[in-house]
DNA sequence: AGCAGACCGGAACGATCCGTTCCACTGATA
DNA sequence: TATCAGTGGAACGGATCGTTCCGGTCTGCT
């Protein structure tokens, strides 16, 4: 019997591929609209609804999985950042990593739509500890204004997640820019680097006034 | 015939009072959830659904009115701020006023749920001009970092509107704090004032994980 | 070749939910 | 007392969505 993972053709392979495709589609869809219907995920993934329900017992299950993945990603970003020797760089790359991964939207806007597992509780606690460690190092570096606290990071990430335009690539750019402003605001020393990304242009937000769906 | 406005008792007076009550309730409800049902507004206002439909032909009508009111409030804040002699103070009080009035949520999260009137288009344009005027004065004061543009203000306001906790009083405090960080980030000179309001506390955001409705 | 079953697409179902309409009722006014 | 603007809230009709279910397809094994 060949190892199933190596079989590129065949039913098993399609199923394995669908595992990925479905998760990716779900991520994209629920990131765009946390209350999106299950059918939207199936459509985006290019599969039928059955393919979803074969993998997850319910919508809540899928949401839980997605949120937990986000949490793990958050922890991974923190771990990566902690390996960086320079305290301030570790701090700011962590934030950039979380913003780029769009983890906050997943974690925050999906939380409350399902009953969390115990493991998620533990992971959430660990995530908090890692963020605190990064924050403490940033504080030790002396570049933080003294009146900032760890919990401000939550607000900061939320602020970045709030930036959203129809094009997701552009959204990422604008978030980086917003993050740069916020980090500069947290810093005790004046910023030296220029704000990243093309500045928002006149009329770039006019789409808001167009009628939606 | 007595002037209707001065009649404190009676049906007319109740109707006049309801005009206010309904608008206020609608503001509160749709601020909390832009997709809230009409019935929620009626309940919050303590009136029946009829009282709503007597005043507005449809939900869309009410939304339009609310959004337009928000736009007018934005303009009023800008006008007030423009009277301030110091350029930088004018700029920052304008932002604080808009954040405090929670105008951005109304304008932005409600936009797109109705077809705007021409007058709203004109007001939106005027709002943009006033904001630009304030921004230009801030720039002229030399306290702005050179790579910031007017359009960044939109992102900044959105970031503040994204801050939200169940208690609205606390929300206002946290937004002020967030605004202070952002304005510090826009500034070319290091901030001197300490961050306002009680700093966010540990566990203050745990409510997110509690199951919602 | 032939069969069992894993896997899938998508129609159908049942349960909400929501905007709007409708009607009976109240109380101020004339 | 007659009128009627103003009101509360039940009822209606349409839309939405999570989930189930059935018929079909392809794979791997015998």
Quaternary status of these chains? homodimer
Strand-residue fraction of chain A? under 5%
The CATH topology annotation of the largest domain in chain A reads as Tetracycline Repressor, domain 2
Q: How far from one another are the termini of chain A?
A: 50 Å
Give the rounded overall mean pLDDT of chain A. Answer: 92
User: What name goes with the CATH superfamily of the largest domain in chain A?
Assistant: Tetracycline Repressor, domain 2
What count of structural domains of chain A? 2
Global outline of chain A: globular
Number of strands of chain A: 0
Instruction: Tell me the structural class of chain A.
Output: mainly alpha
DNA-binding region (chains A, B): 37-56
InterPro entries (chains A, B): Homeodomain-like_sf, HTH-type_TetR-like_transc_reg, HTH_TetR, Tet_transcr_reg_TetR-rel_C_sf, TetR_SbtR-like_C
Protein name (chains A, B): TetR family transcriptional regulator
Pfam family, one (chains A, B): TetR_C_43
Structure overview:
- 2 copies of one chain form a homodimer.
- Chain A has 213 residues and is an all-alpha fold.
- The first copy, chain A, folds into 2 domains: 1-57, no CATH class; 67-204, Tetracycline Repressor, domain 2, CATH 1.10.357.
- Chain A has helices at 10-32, 38-45, 49-55, 59-82, 87-101, 103-110, 118-140, 152-162, 168-186.
- The longest helix of chain A is centred in the N-terminal third of the chain and has 24 residues, at 59-82.
- The interface between A and B is large, with 51 and 51 residues.
- Chain B binds a DNA duplex (30 and 30 nucleotides) through residues 9-12, 14-15, 18, 37-39, 42, 47-51, 53-54, 58-59.
